[in-house]
Amino acid sequence: MPANLKPGWRINAQYVLHVSLPIFRFVMLIIKNQVALRDLIKPYLLRRLKKDVNIELPKKNEQVLFCQLTPIQRQLYLQFLNSKEARLVYAGKKNLLFGIDILRKICNHTLLLKDETANMMADLLAGKVLQY
């Protein structure tokens, strides 16, 4: 049994005065400050419903264009498909979205590639040719 509690679970007056009450006051101060902050920023927050916003937006116009990959994009694409990272994706040891994301970056623009494909880019620029 805790030292601050007497038998029968009666709470010691010293415990309430020095521990419990200051904690309660602190929690109440936090709640008061949260309410004050909410009231302070509420006029500056704009909440709009989806049905209100949809009226203002133009109709969606989607256009799908197909284009060929550049030779560098094609090399990087094939190099990634034969890489260790791709084999981990095939085996299910790496997330499928990781592989899809790399391929998407290669197709969109090679400058989107960062650290994850730096080795592939270095090999390609060094003149290493893929074997297929």
3D architecture notes:
The chain has 132 residues and is mainly alpha-helical. A hairpin with a 3-residue loop joins strand 1 and strand 2. It has 2 domains: 1-57, no CATH class; 71-125, no CATH class. The longest helix is centred in the first third of the chain and has 29 residues, at 13-41. It contains 6 helices and 2 strands. It is 57% helix and 3% strand. A two-stranded antiparallel ribbon has the order 1-2. Helix 3 packs antiparallel against helix 5 (96-108).
Please indicate the count of domains: 2
* Biggest β-sheet strands, sense, barrel: 2 strands, antiparallel
Give the N-terminus to C-terminus distance in angstroms: 75 Å
Structural shape: elongated
Strand % is under 5%
Compute the average pLDDT: 80
Helix-strand makeup class: mainly alpha
Radius of gyration: 31 Å
The helix tally amounts to 6
As a percent range, the share of helical residues equals: 55-70%
Unreliable spans are none
Order of helices and strands: EEHHHHHH
Per DSSP E runs of 2 or more residues, the count of β-strands stands at: 2
Lateral arrangement of strands in the main beta sheet:
1-2
